[in-house]
Specification:
Elements lengths: L1 H35 L5 E2 L8 H6 L6 E9 L9 E5 L5 E2 L3 E8 L5 E3 L8 H11 L2 E8 L7 E6 L2 E2 L5 E3 L3 E7 L6 E2 L9 H10 L3 E7 L8 E7 L8 E2 L3 E8 L5 H13 L7
Parallel strand pairs: 2-5, 7-11, 13-16
Antiparallel strand pairs: 1-4, 3-5, 6-10, 8-9, 8-11, 12-15, 14-16
């Protein structure tokens, strides 16, 4: 009799333990679905062009949190507005998803002016590109150090290494011409990506001039569609002259057919690439 009572007691305790476990598992799963919004998705609207106060004033933002992670300077966009967002518009995400924002800076980013003196022309071009600066006018003067940077100037005045300067500014260089004036043939840049075109221009001792993006500034897919002066310009050109570039996206333009036709026409004295 006593043994039966103990067995029934253990059975009841075991049943209660199993029941409690099942209830806890159910509650845990239910709470997880609520916290993680299981099965729910919302569509991310476009926030590009809005300022932070405008964003906070909207009444449909309860499904998102926002974090500013970067800033860019763009004179074509409103200062303080949102330039980029991640995830992009029309993405499907779970509620309370963090949206990472890049804002348009009110002032250009500044960099410390590098020391270009005694560098070769090509080295100086690479350093300027790294610092986000642009080459300006090139002046060749008599000096034994051929194509070496003798002086660096900004807006007509010499600029010392370490001086703070806005990104995108042009730096004028004075170069040694060695035994005579430097001249080169204009390179063929059509079909090249921007970095390839810049390297080719610098290697020929020319300077990148005006750059125009015909499909929006998408540097990842942009390739040179037009150049001036053209590859077919006759004779030698003075080193330090600028070459203007026009870009199109290779996602929207058939560069293979364009280059094939260009080469055929060029051999037959066709278009000049402008």
């Amino acid at each position: 009799m006593k043994k039966d009572i103990l067995q029934n007691k253990y059975f009841r305790h075991g049943a209660v333990a199993v029941l409690v476990t099942v209830v806890l598992l159910f509650l845990t799963g239910w709470l997880l679905r609520i916290v993680t919004h299981h099965g729910r998705e919302v569509l991310v609207p476009s926030f590009v062009g809005l300022t932070i106060p405008e964003l906070e004033a909207r009444s449909d933002m309860e499904d998102f949190t926002f974090e500013v992670i970067d800033s860019v300077y763009d004179i074509t966009k409103k200062k303080g507005s949102i330039a980029f967002q991640e995830p992009p518009p029309n993405s499907k995400v779970k509620p309370v998803r963090a949206i990472y924002l890049t804002l348009v800076a009110s002032k250009p980013e500044q960099v410390s002016m590098p020391d270009l003196r005694d560098l070769t022309f090509r080295q100086a071009m690479a350093v300027l590109e790294t610092y986000g600066l642009k080459p300006g006018n090139m002046e060749y003067v008599p000096d034994i150090a051929k194509n070496a940077v003798l002086r660096q100037r900004h807006k007509g005045r010499e600029i010392a290494p370490g001086s703070w300067i806005e990104k995108g500014e042009r730096i004028d260089l004075q170069l040694g011409k060695g035994g005579g004036a430097e001249t080169s043939v204009i390179p063929l840049l059509l079909g090249m990506k921007r970095s390839e075109a810049i390297n080719a221009i610098n290697s020929a001792f020319f300077v990148v001039g005006r750059e125009t993006y015909e499909d929006g500034k998408d540097t990842l897919t942009a390739r040179v569609y037009r150049q001036s002066p053209s590859f077919l310009s006759e004779g030698f050109h003075k080193s330090g002259e600028t070459i203007d570039l026009w870009y199109k996206s290779d996602k929207k333009f058939d560069f293979d057919t364009f280059m094939r036709n260009y080469r055929q026409d060029s051999l037959g004295g066709g278009p000049d690439g402008e």
